[in-house]
Amino acid sequence: MSDQRQLTVRGVIAGMLLGGFMSLSNLYVALKTGWSLGVSITAAILSFAIFSALFKFRIIKEAFGMLENNASKSVASAAGYMTGGGTVAAIPALMMITGEPMVGWQMLVWIAAIAMMGLVMAIPMKQQMINVEQLRFPTGIAAAETLKALYGEGGSSGQGKAKILCWSGLIGIFVGFFRDARASWIPFNLPEKFSIPYVTLKGRPLVDYTLAFEGSVIMLGAGAIMGFRAAWSMLLGALINYGVLAPWLYEEGIINAKLGYKHIVAWSLWFGSAMILTSGLLAFAFQWRTVVRAVKSVTGAFGGPASSEGIVEVPMQWFFIGVAILSPIVIFLEWYIFGIKIWMGAISVVLSFFIAIVASRATGETDTTPTGALGKVTQLTFGALDPGNSTTNLMTANVSGGIGLHAADLLTDLKTGYILKADAKQQFWAQFFGVIAGSLFVVPAYQLLIPTADLLGTDKWPAPGAQTWKGVAELLAKGIGALHPTAQIAILVGGLLGIAIVLLEKMLPKYRAYIPSAIGFGLAFTTPANNTIAMFVGALIALWLEKKRPVLAERSIIPVSSGFIAGESLIGIVIALLVVMGVLSS
Asked: Which of 145, 214, 245, 554 has a CB 3.0–4.6 Å from the CB of 530, allowing a cystine?
């Protein structure tokens, strides 16, 4: 192990602040689009640029080293992913069902306990999956290579990316402020949506079907990052849903004549939720070898070698101590906050350990954490154990999904540290600091943005991810017979189509790029079309750059997109705060 400084006070503070601010971006974007974005590489670049400038101007005496940056990035990564504790899925889904907001201190303790349990669950998996099996964890490798480039010959490149990110962040701030801020002293406002004038569907303007272009650079940035296949799949789904099905449903009187996102998605979420559910579960079933290897790795983890040469490991005792402390806390919170029976809470924690193993291995092999599909496994399990209780199947799934996500995130960071020969114990504590920071940033921001349940599922806060969780919970609680006959057909068609797409991908792997993404296609039925159209444009621009200007694309796509997202989302939260303070009008 290197004798470089790693977990330092300044690194922790920088990681907490950067990760905290980026957790706000993730909260804002996920409530808008249903997608969450990685923050570790962005945090590494920003930390490098900030501390390089401070050192250059002699504000600090010691340079910010690579391993110090690695530890700081671990703090930021854990903070940025605190939206995985339920604030963009299970919690808003429960609010939409009950109509009641969650008390702030309860939300903070809840998401922090789940995240900390996820970190503890990762301990026995690290040696087996990273040291022994050498799973790739691609984002972890990318972060390590980024840090090597920043502190090697690529330092000037890192400074350049940081500048691009900052300038694009200013553009995001400008667009967000002059679109959303309302006051007599503001000279102008940008339109929220751009639509084709005088064009109608069934006698109604396109904007009534959400068929417009979003006046937002966030959506352009999100589309550029998500990739072209997911983006065109979402566009296809949006055109079918809002351009074909919604006009027909309106004409037949099946959906509310007011139209708009809220009334259309009340019907279309059943198709989208069914498609996401069946495709996710079937794709997960095809990974049965991953499941078997994951279960075997538990034995390997407890019986494997203590450490690799030159690597300081997290002691296995920390796993047993952490589980002994945190399990009763999580089970108590399930009972105290949500009324979940103690024995069911205990089952959810035990189930979460195995789900964390599978989620971590899937991340190591594919760089994708299937928390959605794994959460649905828990929903279905508790839908059978406690039929008719939406709260139980939602919040037990919140436990398993959140634990799996945070375990996979820690292992991704530990992969970076393993390559750089960092101290795993210090990275473990770094993530604990990140959990605290992310909780302190995310919870107040959530309550500021979503003070009442009626804001969810609207054009402003569509919460597509929560719509899916809500749909599955209601279906398990009420039964399919309570739905309109056309919605019942939509569930059947959506479910079968989700299965068909996954089977096509397996049978025709060479043509996968031309087969719609089941998740993207299904998500389009829970997302406003104006968001989807803008994301497609962003993905199209990124694709063109990758084909025509690959060097420029490598240098600019991630920084520009991250800047757009960070700038606009942060100013959106500032505007909400100024409205509460009375500086701006709502």
From this structure: 214
